[in-house]
Amino acid sequence: MSTRTLTRMLLALCLTLTSALTIAQDLQLELLGDGNLIIGVVSGADAAPAAELPVQIAASLQPEITVTTLQTDAAGIFTFTGEYEATYRVTAGDAIAEITLGEAPPAPFTWPPIYITLGALLLLSLIPARMLRRKDLA
Known about the structure:
With about 140 residues, this protein is an alpha+beta fold. Helices cover about 35% and strands about 30% of the residues.
């Protein structure tokens, strides 16, 4: 190989590495919190999905203890189920974002015990009975 060919190959390799680094640095991270679910979309600067990219999720209060590593799918999407009202830091490449999840849903309505319900209904049934009795006496 001549020196000129070797120089061209080296220059092409440098340009390829530089463009790969530029793509890796221009990641965009969008997060959506729905209850205790985090839905994230990772895309490149050209809005192309970042497929099979590792994503790290850590609780903001204890980032060194609870770190979860996920991977985006072919469309650049990932999902993570966390704790209600917790803040998480999400890292994909050099893109970093934080999200605070929503509050827990309210507890479902439960009826009081049957004896309380029956007692209340019995007391309410006395009202029409007393009203009817007054009409009979008058």
